Amino acid sequence: MITHDLRSHKSAEHLPRAAQLAWKIAEVAADPVTVEPAVTEMIINRIIDNAAVAAAAVARRPVASARAQSLCHPFKKGATLFGMPHGTRVSPEWAAWANGTAVRELDFHDTFLAADYSHPGDNIPPVLAVAQHTGKSGADLIRGIATGYEIQVNLVRGICLHAHKIDHIAHLGPSAAAGLGTLLNLPVDTIYQAVQQALHVTTTTRQSRKGEISSWKAFAPAFAGKMAIEAVDRVMRGEGAPSPAWEGEDGFIAWLLGGPDARYQVPLPSEGEAKRAILDTYTKEHSAEYQSQALIDLARRMGPEIGDPAGIDSIVIHTSHHTHHVIGTGANDPQKMDPNASRETLDHSIMYIFAVALEDRGWHHETSYTPERSARPETVALWHKISTVEDPEWTRRYHAQDPKEKAFGGRVVVTLKDGRILTDELALADAHPAGARPFRRGNYIRKFLTLSDGIIAPGEQQRFLDAAENLADLPADGLGILNFTVDPGRLGSHRPHGIFDWT
Predict the structure, then answer these.
(1) Which of left, alpha, beta for 78 (phi over 0: left; psi -120 to 50: alpha)?
(2) Distance between the two ends of the chain, CA-based, in angstroms?
(3) Are residues 266 and 301 in the same domain?
(4) Is 473 exposed, middle or buried (CB count within 10 Å of its CB: 0-12, 13-18, 19+)?
(5) pLDDT, tens digit (0-9, with 9 covering 90-100), for 99-133
(6) Measuring CA to CA, which of 11, 277, 409, 449 is 20 to 30 A from 493?
(7) What is the CATH number of the domain that holds 208?
(8) Tens digits of per-residue pLDDT, 184-221?
(9) How many domains does the chain have?
(10) Alpha helices in 292-364 (DSSP H)
(11) Is the pTM of this model over 0.85?
(12) 302 in the same domain as 260
């Protein structure tokens, strides 16, 4: 890996293209390195993972809205839509929009946390959609997805967005554009322009994850994928981008990140070096914000010792700065303590999540979020006894580079009404690669079968799994089978209409 120093430059300095981050990203994307077997294995796992969470969300209103919009843009070649017949094809950017929303709606797929945070599986829908549309093979798709993960993970390692209230899709737009560049074997200068366009049009604020969180949290990554496809299309037609997008005098660093004096270090593979970043990412066993994964597992573990939750006087979760300020009481969001809050908001309240996980000794992607569940009087009472505090040691471990030090959990102190104090801690979720029960292929398959049970017919479940597991051997123009169909009655009752339906 090569660490690239990054800062803003005045226009008079004339930063050469070869010294710009976008160019270096484009060089990585255009580098025809062999994809290692372990990377191919993990890409297949994540394709299965994405389909699992998309199936569970296929009837939800935001997914229905995105699908309805996409169906208004049919395309003879095109790409498939989750839930629809394989022959139903829409323009690839709209397929990326609908499928990306389905993947993201339940906040239940993979994650990578470092200087910033991300869900790198969001790269898969746009790359897959374009691969289907352009008749690429399974091997081509694997190369494109490997690049998308590589670029997003390394941007997340080097550049913190949330400190400046920028949403993390500003790393996803460029990574998806780079992945598309690899998929389509585009030249470096074309990928360079597309990466910059994608950054420019996918930079939004973090209000989408603050206060009263709406369905836009699910739409945001799909929007980034859609914009990346459009950016690549424009650049292939000869159009350019604001340059240098990161380093320019009026660019990303100078005005949206740390300012003219800020310095960033972004690691990227050297020429000929394999793209392995996907192996540093991890998926979710529970449908909740990633920082809650270990704490859900800890609640399950502490439950028998605590006994009846009614005997609790208070619970304090000692955790990292990020967990405290994003999903904890440090966010100062009253909505995080509101029984009438949206599912998206409850998903970002570790106080609610820990209370329910402690009471139920587990977590469910649907029943743990129902209005009846969040309004249960005993749950509300327990929920309001829980607070978080930042612990510098957990913050240090959150940002640690040493995998043995890395931690996304916390230490929980439970004070009981009888005066006893119970303490336990967990650094990593059980399903984490270094956790107690690391996810393997069988876990991904089990997750898919569980989440799609009653939604996808058994024969169709197996057909999809067979297609995914044989991804590397799928021929050119054979990627349309990387889709699942469901009975129309399983698509939900939502039939939203808008401008695109106008007749």
Answers:
(1) left
(2) 55
(3) no
(4) exposed
(5) 999 999 998 999 999 899 899 999 999 999 999 99
(6) 449
(7) 1.10.4100.10
(8) 999 999 999 999 999 999 999 988 777 776 788 889 99
(9) 2
(10) 293-306, 321-326, 343-346, 350-360
(11) yes
(12) no
